[in-house]
Fold this protein.
Amino acid sequence: MPAFSFLSSWKASLLTRRRYFFLLGSLTTLVLGSISGILLLRPFSKDSPNQEEDEKRRKNRLKKFCVDIPKVELHSHLNGSIRNATLKDLLSDLSVPIPPTLQNPDSEESTRTLSECFEIFPLIHLAVSTTSSLRRVVQETLIDFESDNVIYLELRTTPRTLDEGKVGKREYVDIVLSEMKKWVEDKDTKLIPRLIISIDRSKGVKEARENMGIASSLFKMGHDYVVGVDLGGNPTKGSFKEFKGLLEQVRTEGMKVTVHAGEVDDLEEVNDIVAFRPDRLGHFLCVDGGVWEKMEREGGDIPIEVCPTSNVMTLGLKGLGEHPILERLVKEGYPVSINTDDKGVFNTKQSLELYKVAETLGLNEYTVSGLVWGAVDLVFEGNRRTRARVARDVMKGIKSRLDKIEAGG
Ligand SMILES: CNc1ncnc2c1ncn2[C@@H]1O[C@H](COP(=O)(O)O)[C@@H](O)[C@H]1O
């Protein structure tokens, strides 16, 4: 074999060997790289589904806890609580076309601005304009709250005439009360229903006087179910000042008073309401530092009825995280109750409102319990024994659910 051919064959074999080593090296790098990559990534790829699972489990447990525990609901409008199916049913019975805002109320994305809400209420009133439809709405509302484990419910409503004027306002209230009474007598139920009689501020002082007259006469008769009065209705209509005297009057008779405040930007009115010092405030959204200072100076905290979904929708917020006062109230331990407002209109329920608050503020089962327990103290119920019963049942229910969680259930 000639020298050069040996050389060339050696070079060739060197080349082959280099290629071989290069290939081997590359392969080793690839294999080791892959192994170390797998090892490095393993904790993430293994833990990430677990983390997701844990998070899902935590959320489900919290959601179930919010459903299971006994609760109190203090701000709920009767006609706004109508089931969407019932509303559609009643409207179709009357051959009234269903408007687009009602087409898909069950959608998660459904939103309702303040003005849209106040367009829906006349439609609901049109649908619920007979004795039988009113009875149906009361019954279904009690069923819905009971199935969500609400054990004490203050339902509020504005007296109206029914059956084309044949049934008067006082009879309207009597129908609501008789349905509540029947509920308690007929059923082995834990739900205690109570009534707050409302003034709709858009309807003027004359109507308001009639409503307060009905409330006052029932209260003087010692009716157990009538626990207070409310000023509500479209906040862009009328003013608190017009109704202040009437509210003052029923208050001196011993009735509890709650007032919708600060749903729209009107600081002068909010200051007037705070100066009046109702027993509770509804919503209380558009307020400034001066209002809080005034409240502090003139007697301290007035309990607030928060209605999370309603507040988000009527203020046009992106989410509950943008709620103007919720976080501060809850974190500072301010006296608050969490409510539905209009469970039909806002497509919600008490447990869901509670869960949304918990998720937004990072509360767990213990802090949620504190929130629910705190609301028990704010009920308008005048009978001490009934109040004690509600407190005992809420505490018992919370304790048994927390015990279960601690036992790993
Ligand atoms: C959105 N936030 C709110 N702010 C103010 N008032 C409200 C309300 N939601 C409901 N109502 C009041 O409750 C009535 C419906 O129930 P009732 O017929 O009384 O049972 C509405 O017409 C309005 O006056």
The longest strand covers residues 192-200. The chain has two domains: 1-68, 69-403. The longest helix spans residues 3-68.
